[in-house]
């Protein structure tokens, strides 16, 4: 209430605080947009090992421990008005791309999303929250593509109550995989000055042994690599390489003259050694090493790399 009252007096819209919640703690990230481009302003990590990490596990997630950790993290941000942008497990959000005639307004697309929910989801449409995003319109075509997103209403309600109990407004909910992708691209631009990337794109998170494959900016798939991320031997890296090729094929990619991917981003401990092997084996046309921890100045405070990337990606949303 105090933050809302301050916002009402000042008339300023709330700033976005990107957030990640897990059984290990809460991570918040705030960006500074004062010079027109985002840079890290604040990174807060509040460790707490007492709560569960799945948002659809209501008994574990909607707990006093989560609320307390979130409230403590927001208090550390200091004065100001903030709204929460939260990245949640991708399994809780269903994405579908449809093609529609050009000229439909937002209300008509919202009505179409109800039809798609009835056709594709095993729950009544009144138990589903939906949203949509128009893709760039081809002026020479009489159709356009729209990305629809669906999430169970009870998941959103649980998150909203959780935020309200911590005296925070929940403004945005999105897939964690999308936030990781966005954070990786921001990190690439900040470290290497590369504003554009090419798809298909791969992102290898060494600490979490996770591979994200992007056929496009929104067409993202995540795979768990069954290997020890702490091992950086030639043998271990070759095992990761073979797994990477397997998952590229599973994602529908084909091996070309320069590999399966146009670009591969490698992050985590041992990223330099991994990038060297992947460059030599031509798994991608270009391999770049990124280090989000270096930008955040959080090398030793315990925040998981996955959580830092999710919170950073969500913090890149401009407004509530």
From TrEMBL:
It holds the Pfam family PilM_2. This is Uncharacterized protein. It comes from Fluviibacter phosphoraccumulans. The lineage of its organism: Bacteria, Pseudomonadati, Pseudomonadota, Betaproteobacteria, Rhodocyclales.
């Amino acid at each position: 209430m105090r933050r809302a009252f301050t916002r009402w007096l000042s008339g300023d819209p709330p700033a976005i605080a990107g957030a990640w919640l897990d059984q290990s703690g809460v991570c918040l990230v705030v960006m500074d947009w004062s010079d027109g481009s985002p840079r890290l302003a604040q990174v807060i990590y509040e460790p707490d090992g007492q709560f569960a990490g799945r948002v659809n596990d209501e008994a574990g997630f909607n707990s006093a421990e989560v609320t307390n950790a979130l409230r403590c993290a927001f208090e550390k941000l200091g004065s100001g008005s903030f709204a929460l942008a939260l990245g949640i497990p991708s399994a809780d959000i269903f994405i579908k791309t449809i093609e529609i005639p050009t000229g439909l307004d937002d209300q008509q697309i919202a009505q179409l999303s109800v039809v798609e929910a009835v056709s594709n989801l095993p729950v009544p449409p009144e138990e589903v929250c939906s949203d949509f995003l128009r893709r760039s319109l081809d002026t020479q075509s009489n159709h356009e593509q729209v990305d629809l997103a669906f999430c169970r209403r009870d998941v959103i309600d649980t998150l909203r109550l959780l935020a309200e109990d911590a005296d925070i407004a929940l403004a945005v909910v999105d897939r964690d995989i999308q936030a990781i992708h966005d954070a990786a691209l921001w990190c690439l631009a900040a470290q290497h000055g590369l504003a554009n990337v090419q798809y298909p794109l791969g992102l290898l998170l060494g600490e979490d042994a996770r591979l994200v494959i992007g056929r496009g900016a929104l067409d993202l798939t995540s795979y768990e690599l069954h290997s020890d991320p702490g091992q950086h031997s030639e043998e271990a890296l070759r095992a990761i390489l073979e797994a990477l090729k397997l998952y590229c094929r599973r994602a529908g990619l084909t091996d070309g003259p320069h590999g399966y991917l146009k670009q591969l981003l490698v992050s985590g401990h041992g990223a330099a050694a991994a990038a060297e092997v992947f460059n030599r084996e031509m798994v991608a046309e270009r391999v770049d090493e990124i280090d989000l921890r270096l930008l955040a100045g959080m090398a030793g405070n315990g925040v998981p790399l996955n959580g830092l990337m999710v919170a950073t990606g969500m913090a890149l949303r401009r407004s509530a």
